[in-house]
Design goal:
The complex is a heterodimer.
Chain A: H1 5-21, E1 50-51, H2 54-62, H3 86-90, H4 113-119, H5 141-152, E2 165-166
Antiparallel strand pairs in A: 1-2
Chain B: H1 17-37, H2 48-54, H3 73-81, E1 104-118, E2 125-142, E3 146-155, E4 160-170, E5 175-182, H4 196-201, E6 209-218, E7 221-228, E8 242-250, E9 254-265, E10 268-281, E11 284-295, E12 302-316, E13 319-329, E14 339-351, E15 354-364, E16 375-384
Antiparallel strand pairs in B: 1-2, 1-16, 2-3, 3-4, 4-5, 5-6, 6-7, 7-8, 8-9, 9-10, 10-11, 11-12, 12-13, 13-14, 14-15, 15-16
Helix pairs in contact in B: 1-3
The chains are: A mainly alpha, B mainly beta.
């Protein structure tokens, strides 16, 4: 099938600038999984299995997935989930959408709004991460179970020595 | 293929005399309807390429002067007569004009998706479900002067109010003031919340804010300034406010705009700037936006760039090929962390109120992050009125 010259020109006009712009992804040299320079204070590691402790959840879930939107001064619902600020934003903090529920209620995952949101059971709004399952994967059940286990254990900030491990 | 209307994009610029006359009559009719609506307002909305393609202000098709879902009478008629490949004759019912009584206007969008996601080192997933279902309503308390507007997201999940505001027009419909909860005026209001420019700026359809917006519309200029809580929908928790302003200059074949936002929050100071625009080259409508964001609420302080270049090719009547290339540098001070996203989407509108979309997206980021390197394919059914 031979395309008309003008159609070929349109296709070339479309393709060249778009491809030029889309050919600049970073090599990742010297960075951890979350794009932070290795060896700096901002690098939490970000590799290895997810475990039921806060730092692991931060590195494997909050930073790479949630903080793509929930970061900075204009984070949705005012909830920042970036490194260093997320704990104080969620543990024993009332949710904005259902203020009668804490985002994380230590010891009670069923009544923790963040858990309800990632399970798709919340009374208001859509399941998180935003767009899941239609534009990005939902958290797998193993990861959700680990977050529930961390909440059930009292949602401690420090790493627990004996935590459940699941390979992603 | 059995398709009606224009044979292909190559014929777009070859008009005979009758076609020119029909085009003039059609456009005159549309412009007349536009004047009837008296709602010529601001910037591009969910599909800003349509505004670029037609050369009209996007507010010509949407009630919300700074972007929003409910269509004007002109928008409803345009979507039924100009967008579909074939217009089904509705007989005595005529065209849907959005009116539900003399005071009420209603509308809605339903997007149902089937998506296949291939993420490296993870199980491939496929799923179907409602991506977005919204209903809109507006009440004209004083005709062409005082309106009440609601945008309610019905699904997925529990019902959630997205916009609710009152709007007063004055100064011969050249000024308005809006108060309540609304989307902030910043950059191109793309339908895709996950476009890097919308995700990085955190101004999209998931982050309405509460406050007031003042708008000015004069000739080719549209401008808004909004003073809001700066909490992206959360309750106010500080004395600082977010100031967001946007201005765009619109000509028939192109448009260019600037946006700026300053949010003084308890956790830090966030500043954003954007330059955006569009141009029409034959059957292709181009969109572009570049954003710079600096945020001191993050540690280390964040400074990032996001860019978008999009081409929309009307290769046949009722068909649009959308190619989008995006760029994100999430931390300017960190090397080798840039990301790309490339999308190819075929939008087919066979009849009025119905659109299908088939698309592919390729994410390209640092190799050690699987999610940044996923691939998506999707099919979407879009019903709208």
């Amino acid at each position: 099938m031979v395309l008309k010259a003008s159609v070929r020109l349109h296709i070339a006009t479309l393709a060249l600038p778009l491809l030029a712009l889309a050919a600049c992804a970073g090599s990742g040299d010297g960075l951890d999984q979350n794009g932070n320079p290795i060896g700096t204070g901002s690098s939490g590691g970000g590799s290895g299995p997810v475990t039921a402790d806060f730092q692991s959840i931060q590195d494997q879930v909050f930073t790479p997935i949630c903080a793509q939107c929930h970061a900075g001064a204009s984070a949705p619902e005012g909830m920042q989930l970036g490194e260093g600020v997320s704990y104080s934003m969620i543990v024993n903090v009332p949710s904005e959408e259902v203020p009668t529920l804490m985002r994380i209620k230590p010891g009670d995952p069923d009544n923790s709004y963040l858990v309800q949101k990632i399970e798709g059971l919340a009374a208001v709004g859509a399941q998180m991460p935003a767009g899941c399952p239609t534009t990005q994967p939902c958290l797998d059940q193993d990861t959700i179970n680990l977050i529930r286990a961390w909440v059930s254990a009292g949602a401690p900030m420090a790493t627990t020595p004996a935590s459940t491990t699941v390979m992603k | 293929m059995g398709q009606r209307g224009r044979a292909d994009g190559d014929d777009a610029g070859i008009d005979d005399g009758d076609e020119v006359k029909r085009t003039i009559l059609r456009r005159s009719g549309l412009l007349f309807l536009l004047l009837l609506t008296q709602l010529v307002c601001t910037r591009a909305f969910a599909e800003p390429y349509l505004a670029v393609r037609t050369g009209l202000a996007c507010g010509a098709c949407h009630v919300n002067p700074s972007g929003g879902g409910l269509r004007t009478t002109f928008g409803d008629i345009y979507s039924q007569t100009q967008m579909p490949q074939q217009q089904i004759d509705t007989g005595s019912h005529g065209l849907w004009t959005g009116n539900a009584g003399s005071l009420f206007r209603v509308g809605g969008n339903l997007r149902d998706d089937f998506t296949y996601i291939d993420t490296p080192n993870q199980k491939k997933s496929d799923s179907s479900g409602i991506d977005d279902f919204r209903l809109y309503a507006a009440v004209s308390l004083l005709e062409d002067r005082l309106n009440l507007y609601v945008d309610e997201r019905i699904a997925p999940g529990g019902t959630q109010n997205r916009e609710a505001y009152g709007m007063l027009w004055f100064g011969q419909h050249r000024f308005y003031i809006k108060g309540g909860q609304f989307y902030l005026p910043f950059g191109l209001r793309l339908q895709d919340d996950e476009a890097y420019v919308r995700q990085a700026s955190a101004i999209n359809y998931t982050t309405p804010d509460s406050g007031a917006e003042f708008g000015w519309i004069h000739g080719a200029w549209n401008a808004q300034i909004a003073l809001t809580n700066g909490s992206a929908g959360a309750a106010e928790s500080n004395q600082g406010k977010q100031v967001t302003t946007s201005a765009v200059y619109i000509r028939s074949g192109w448009r260019a705009g600037l946006s700026y936002s300053d949010n003084e929050a308890t956790s830090g100071h966030r500043q954003m700037g954007a330059i955006f625009g569009g141009i029409r080259t034959g059957p292709i409508a181009w969109l572009a936006e570049a954003d710079y964001i600096a945020d001191t609420s993050l540690s280390p302080h964040m400074d990032e760039y996001a860019g978008l270049l999009e081409a929309n090719w009307a290769f046949l009547r009722g068909n649009n090929l959308k190619l989008t290339a995006e760029f994100l540098d999430p931390a300017v001070h960190v090397a080798h962390d840039q990301r790309d996203r490339f999308s190819a989407i075929w939008e087919y509108t066979p009849i009025q109120f119905l659109q299908t979309r088939l698309g592919f997206r390729n994410y390209d980021g640092i190799p050690q992050n699987d999610l940044q390197n996923r691939k998506e394919a999707f099919a979407e059914l879009h019903l709208f009125f």
